[in-house]
Amino acid sequence: MKAYQSDIAKFEAAGTQVYGISMDSFASNREFAKQNELTFPLLSDWKRETTKAYGLYNETSGYGNRGTFVVDKEGKIQHIEIGRTAIDPTGAFQACDLIEQRKAAREAQKP
Fold first, then answer.
1. Which pLDDT score, from 0 to 100, does residue 56 have?
2. Residue pLDDT, tens place only, 9-24
3. pTM of the model
4. Burial class (CB in 10 A: 0-12, 13-18, 19+), 62
5. 76 vs 22, 32, 51, CA distance in Å?
6. If you compute the radius of gyration of the chain from its CA atoms, what whole number of angstroms results?
7. Predicted confidence (pLDDT) at residue 25 exceeds the cutoff of 90
8. Domain 2-104 has CATH 3.30.70.890
9. pLDDT score for 97
């Protein structure tokens, strides 16, 4: 989360909204966000619904795997990273940048 916060200006410049989702409680997430000075929303998936829906929930351990999903404005997933690489915002930012480039190219082609 700290890496995403460090690069938040890049995401904002690309017209992107960053959200964090954790299976911890709202209170725990609020404290974590405060301690790490996060300016983006940190949401609670206390019931594990989102974690399960995105295929990140490990039934055996009861924990969620780390994951980064880039979802475009139409609600389509454009990029997924699972595991340790999900901590690094580079791939997510590159995916956001590519989405913006495609959008600009479409706009340039309009009469």
1. 96
2. 988 888 889 999 999 9
3. 0.82
4. exposed
5. 21, 29, 17
6. 15
7. yes
8. no
9. 87
- For 76, the token pair is 């389509």
Q: State residue 98 phi and psi, 5-degree precision.
A: -65, -40
State what percent of residues in the chain have pLDDT above 70: 100
For 36, 67, 90, 100, 110, the CA distances from 87, given in Å and listed in that order, are 15, 8, 9, 22, 38
Provide mean pLDDT across the span 34-42: 95
Average pLDDT, the chain: 92
60 vs 47, 57, 64, 65, CA distance in Å?
Answer: 16, 9, 10, 12
Show the tokens assigned to 51: 């974690």
Mapping DSSP onto H, E and C, the string for the chain reads CHHHHHCHHHHHHCCCCCCEEECCCHHHHHHHHHHCCCCCCEEECCCCHHHHHCCCEECCCCEECCEEEEECCCCCEEEEEECHHHHCCHHHHHHHHHHHHHHHHHHHHCC
